[in-house]
Amino acid sequence: AMGLKEELLKSIWHAFTALDLDRSGKVLSHNLCTVLNVPHDPVALEEHFRDDDEGPVSNQGYMPYLNKFILEKVQGNFDKVEFNRMCWTLCAKKNLSKSPLLISDEDAFKVWVIFNFLSEDKYPLIIVPEEIEYLLKKLTEAMGAGWQQEQFDHYKIALNTSREGLSAWELIDLIGSGQFSKGMDRQTVSMAINEVFNELVLDVLKQGYMLKKGHKRKNWTERWFVLKPNIISYYVSEDLKDKKGDIILDGNCCVEALPDKDGKKCLFLIKCLDKSFEISASDKKKKQEWIQAIQTTVNLLRAGSPPLHKEARQKRKELRQKLLAEQEELERQMKELQTANENKQKELETVRKQLEAAAARAAEEEKKRLQTQVELQDRFSLELEREKMVRQKMEEQVAQKSSELEQYLQRVCELEEMYKQLQEALEEEKQARQDEETVRKLQARLLEEESAKRAELEKWHLEQQQTIQMTEAEKQELEKQRMIKERALQVAMQQLEQLELERKETLEQYEEVKKKLETAANNTKSWKDKVAHHEGLIRLIEPGSKNPHLITNWGPAAFTEAELEQRQKSWKGKKATSE
């Protein structure tokens, strides 16, 4: 149904585009309904073509109406030639060339219908060079002439340089000009066009005179047979005016040769479900051609395939689309290669410029190097002269330095004396740091003991509160225990106070030691300042510690391990006497 609709649209497109932009679409619609055997719908027609600005003035306006009210209702029971002739009548006068043609208007009409069959399925309609070649070959074959491939190739090259293909009217001009039928008379060309028209448009696969045996009287009568994809029609003569009957073909039909009988030769039989037909061809060649043509048609019906010329047209279109897709892919790849090539060229140009720039820089650097070399030579000469002068001055200064050396040795002695005093100050500072470290440890230990006593007191206090909550019978016993614990608490409190006093004493000792440390540090700093004043003359060497130092949270300890143990023993002795 879709293929039929596409074929109809091509002819209607020619008719519609030939109309003036007025309400003539109404006439076209009326004529289409008539030739396509579609019921007229005057109400829809008037509604669609009412006298206002919304009427169809283009394909966009007319196509919805055409699809809905006409093409959707087409059943296929219409005369294809009559339909095409109506569309031809509307467009031929406006488009046909005014120059005289070697073919008649009837032949031009048939070429126009063939164009619609072979043209591409896009608008405006054109026929591509491959299809033009196919049509011209068919016409040349029908005329019995030789095909001039070289001539067509020249024409094809000239055509391809200007456009994709020809319009219907340009194709009519091409065939009517006789360019590809030179030496042929008009009648031969007309017969060739008619033969190709019958095959491609009317689906006439084969036609000719043969004898047919009657079913009733059993007599043999000459008839004009026309083979189409699903039917064989037979007429009185080739003008097709008086049709005598049809042989309906389907997949169940078959055709077979018969032996000569009743004085008739070249016999064959067409078997259908309801009837069989005996036919006699004029010679063995014609008999074989007809058997082969009918068998091919039946095989196509059995396979559900379209006629060979339609299938060939579809294959050519598919091949063109495939080639077009391949060409587009090739063009895309070529563009990519071209882009890559351009990028490479740009990269090479950039590298070339960089090399040129590098060469220029190298030349410039060489020039600068030579200039620098000359400058260095000049400078070296000047430096050499200056060095001689300096050497003379230095010799003069050596004598002067000899006297200064004596003064320097005297100053070294003074510095050595200062260094001894500085060592003593450092020893005092070290002793002060050791005292500070001992006091700090004592203070930490006292704090820990105080914290433990406080925890014990809190524990006793909690136990005292728990005993208050016990029963009355246990109160007296608990009271005694409480008195004992109270006394113990008082003793602990006294100890805590004693510890507090000791901690204060320790703090006072710490403050004294701290003051001593500050004094020692100030002395050290003053000695360091004095030494720094003479730093350019002598380098101080500080004595290293003889015993390994302890490392505390505050840094290196002020006491050695032995000194710390001595102080701990002393502290424990004091604590024992106080208790």
From TrEMBL:
Record PROSITE patterns: PH_DOMAIN
Subunit text: The SWAP complex consists of NPM1, NCL, PARP1 and SWAP70.
InterPro entries noted in UniProt: EF-hand_SWAP70_N, PH-like_dom_sf, PH_domain, PH_SWAP70
Function of the molecule: Phosphatidylinositol 3,4,5-trisphosphate-dependent guanine nucleotide exchange factor (GEF) which, independently of RAS, transduces signals from tyrosine kinase receptors to RAC. It also mediates signaling of membrane ruffling. Regulates the actin cytoskeleton as an effector or adapter protein in response to agonist stimulated phosphatidylinositol (3,4)-bisphosphate production and cell protrusion.
The compartments listed are: Cell membrane; Cell projection, Lamellipodium; Cytoplasm; Nucleus
Kinase listed as a keyword: no
User: What organism is this sequence from?
Assistant: Turnix velox
Q: What is its main location?
A: membrane
Query: A single GO CC term, please?
Result: nucleus
Q: Give this protein's Gene Ontology molecular function annotations.
A: DNA binding
Which residue ranges does the record assign to the PH domain? 203-299
Question: What protein name does the entry list?
Answer: Switch-associated protein 70
Q: What is the lineage of its organism?
A: Eukaryota, Metazoa, Chordata, Craniata, Vertebrata
